[in-house]
Design a protein that fits this description.
The complex is a heterodimer of chains A (about 280) and B (about 375).
Chain A lengths: L29 H15 L6 E5 L3 H4 L7 E4 L5 H11 L4 E7 H7 L1 H10 L4 E6 L2 E2 L5 E2 L23 H8 L3 E6 L3 H13 L4 E6 L3 H5 L7 H10 L22 E5 L5 H17 L1
Parallel strand pairs in A: 1-2, 1-3, 3-4, 4-8, 7-8
Antiparallel strand pairs in A: 5-6, 7-9
Helix pairs in contact in A: 1-7, 4-5, 5-6
Chain B lengths: L3 E6 H12 L1 E6 L6 H10 L6 E4 L3 H13 L3 E6 L1 H6 L1 H10 L3 E9 L5 E5 L4 H6 L8 E3 L4 H18 L2 E7 H5 L1 E6 L43 E3 L13 H16 L2 H4 L2 E4 L6 E4 L3 H15 L4 E6 L1 E3 L3 H10 L2 E6 L5 H8 L6 E5 L8 H14 L1
Parallel strand pairs in B: 2-3, 2-4, 4-5, 5-8, 7-8, 12-13, 12-15, 15-16
Antiparallel strand pairs in B: 1-9, 5-6, 7-14, 11-13
The chains are: A alpha/beta (about 280), B alpha/beta (about 375).
Chain lengths: ~280, ~375
């Protein structure tokens, strides 16, 4: 991993302070994820002029604007597709996608699958708060079984989607998961993901206190964030086959790291060969 | 190298026009009857250091095109009706964020899956109003293989000049026609590049209200670090819902097209000066109409033709002028009546405009148009 550390990290160097105060609710985990991302950017020594942040729609999509970089707030579910075009046209840029569980797994699920398969050098940071919070708290593909949301008033009857397992199966060359409770670990994971050559998928478990926690009696922000630790799956613990996927079964850290040809490089190599052939 | 003459298929001419205009990025999804454009771009783009990518769907295709355009590439996608429907959301995003891009829609029979291999002109109105909200759009409608080549170049130039999506709209017949095309020397082709913002000054406003209403664009990587959003935004690029700022920002992106109509509008007339019956037709139907006019003139019937080449913004002045002196106006089109709505609005007197429509996947013939004109003249 790239270990460039210049000076102590000051988040203000990477924020558009003119936009403060921010829109996030008290206790929202997205601010911690934002801080971890910027901390990772700092420790990697990335030039923010060369950093492009592409986000989708929802609470996750809105945090991109606070980053003092080239920021693109795109359409619902499509940030990975926008980022694919941007990275292919501009391989000199570091392109980070910020997306949410609804944005990335429901409306944008197809783009995630094919971004993993292609293995273009993008970093996808999916903030999983288990709910469509911006629209008022509807169920998402990661809402836990039995949980109450505005569209599952009698308890969620659907099983949840394991985004990391999907990313791995689709071919992502780097897959990781972390909780906002472990901010330094999250920073290190994002750092490794950005440094990785190829498509990196990072799921961040981020609490939605106001819209989701309150409806499900999950406590205030301190209780919710403390419960993240006890809900992580110990090493070697596997799911019971007959139970829907639950948060307390989550594994954290780097889950997949493998060498696969990076798409942009492969495409440019083939293009160069074709140009050489034409010249002959 | 001087100009050369080559037999080309319409869709191939579209790809060559795009490359001549400076297109260096194409993202697309296979669909009949447009796929030859993607195939040609997949072959040619790597040869000019460009990038072709086949995306997972049409939403992703236009998203990737807009993403490449953020980065500075001239970028294009090509599709047909069903795919064009799927692109509407991101088309609005390109209009709202003022990101230049070109979308080719090779029209086939609709609605829905319709008739994939049959021609139609059912997307005239969708091309104008397909995405939600009031938005600027430029649509060019070529009628021959030669014109597909030149109009694709013009679409890129207009998209770049006005920072707006431009649509190249033609039907399955011209897409698959093979005609002789004059390919000019590349050095003689006029191409337009968008204005790029210079400098790294603090307080840069990426959506400032410039005199020409088209602000210079911030190229990532050069220090300006702009924010781009599909939310209504102020001059600084950040979201706002303040009524006076919203109205001003939206009015500017509409006005930038209205104010430059003289640079965008394009139409062709044949014998409209003394015509008793003026035909208004677009694309392949206009070619049938041209033949009908010649035939009718030979019979002593004073017929004329107005052919919009820029379909949107609609050539209002040219339509009013051509219809003014004529006793009747005929609008033949391969749909249930879309162009006619626009012509009726502009032609003045009620009952002046007659329609001739086909929605059966067959072209309108010169004989059908001529017969309809004779009918109109006999009615007088």
């Amino acid at each position: 991993m790239n270990e460039v550390v210049r000076s102590p990290f000051d988040i203000k160097d990477y924020l558009r302070l003119q936009l403060m105060p921010h829109f996030m609710c008290p206790g929202c985990g997205h601010g911690i994820a934002l801080r971890a991302l910027l901390w990772a950017v700092h420790e990697l020594g990335l030039d923010k002029n060369k950093l492009a942040v592409v986000s989708g729609i929802g609470c996750s999509g809105r945090i991109g604007a606070y980053i003092d970089a080239n920021t693109y707030h795109t359409t619902h579910g499509r940030p990975l597709a926008f980022a694919t075009g941007l990275k292919l046209a501009r391989p000199d840029l570091t392109v980070v996608v910020i997306t949410g569980d609804g944005d990335c797994l429901a409306i944008g699920g197809n783009h995630l699958i094919h971004a993993c398969r292609r293995n273009l050098d993008l970093t996808c940071l999916m903030l999983n708060n288990e709910v469509y919070a911006m629209t008022g708290g509807q169920a998402s593909p990661t809402t836990s079984f039995d949980r109450i949301t505005t569209t599952t008033p009698h308890g969620n009857a659907e099983p949840t989607l394991d985004a990391c397992a999907l990313a791995e199966a689709a071919g992502a060359s780097f897959v990781g998961r972390e909780v906002t409770r472990q901010a330094p670990a999250l920073k290190n994971l994002i750092k490794a993901a950005i440094a990785h050559q190829g498509f990196s998928f990072v799921e961040t478990i981020s609490d939605c206190t106001e819209i989701y926690g309150r409806k499900n009696d999950l406590g205030e922000s301190p209780e919710m964030i403390l419960s993240q630790k006890s809900e992580m799956r110990p090493e070697g613990y596997s799911d019971a086959a007959d139970e829907p996927f639950r948060p307390h079964r989550l594994r954290a850290g780097i889950l997949v790291e493998r060498d696969r040809p990076e798409y942009g490089r492969v495409y440019r190599q083939r293009a160069a060969l074709e140009r050489a052939r034409k010249r002959q | 190298m001087s100009s050369s003459l080559a037999p080309l298929q319409g869709n191939r001419a579209c790809a060559l026009g795009a490359l001549a205009a400076g297109c260096r990025f194409f993202a697309g999804y296979p669909i009949t009857p447009s796929s030859e454009i993607a195939e040609a771009m997949s072959r040619e783009l790597p040869r000019v250091d460009g990038v072709f990518i086949q995306m997972e769907d049409e939403m992703g295709s236009l998203a990737a095109v807009i993403g490449a355009s953020f980065g500075g590439a001239k970028a294009m996608t090509a599709t047909s009706g069903p795919g064009f429907s799927l692109m509407q959301e991101n088309l609005g995003y390109a209009a709202m964020t003022e990101t230049p891009c070109v979308v080719v829609n090779v029209m086939r029979g609709g609605p829905s899956t319709g008739m994939p291999t049959r021609p139609a002109q059912g997307d005239f109105m969708q091309a104008r109003w397909g995405t939600h909200g009031d938005h600027p759009i430029i649509v060019v409608a070529p009628a021959s293989v030669q014109e597909i080549y030149t109009e694709t170049i013009r679409a890129f130039n207009l998209a770049e000049e006005f920072r707006t999506p431009a649509i190249v709209l033609y039907d399955e017949i011209v897409a698959h026609l093979i005609e002789s095309v004059e390919l000019p020397d590349r050095r003689t082709i006029a191409t337009t590049n968008r204005k790029w913002a210079a400098g790294t000054e603090r307080g840069f406003a990426p959506y400032a209200e410039t005199d020409d209403l088209v602000p210079p664009m911030a190229r990532p990587g050069e220090g300006l670090r702009a924010h781009v959003t599909g939310l209504t935004h102020t001059a600084d690029g950040f979201p706002t819902q303040k009524p006076e700022l919203v109205a001003r920002a939206l009015q500017r992106i509409l006005d930038k097209i209205e104010r430059h109509r003289d640079r965008i509008e394009k139409s062709e007339t044949l014998g409209t000066a003394d015509a008793e019956v003026v035909i208004v037709a677009v694309g392949i139907v206009a070619r049938a109409a041209r033949r009908a006019v010649q035939q009718l003139r030979a019979e002593g019937i004073k017929a004329g033709l107005l052919r919009p080449i820029t379909l949107w913004p609609f050539p209002e002045g040219a339509t009013r002028a051509a219809a003014e002196r004529a006793r009747r106006v005929l609008v033949p089109e391969m749909n249930a009546g879309q162009l006619a709505l626009e012509v009726e609005r502009l032609a003045g007197a009620r009952g002046k405009v007659a329609r001739l429509n086909r929605i059966d996947g067959e072209p309108i013939t010169p004989a059908q148009i001529a017969a309809k004109v004779r009918e109109l003249v006999a009615d007088e």
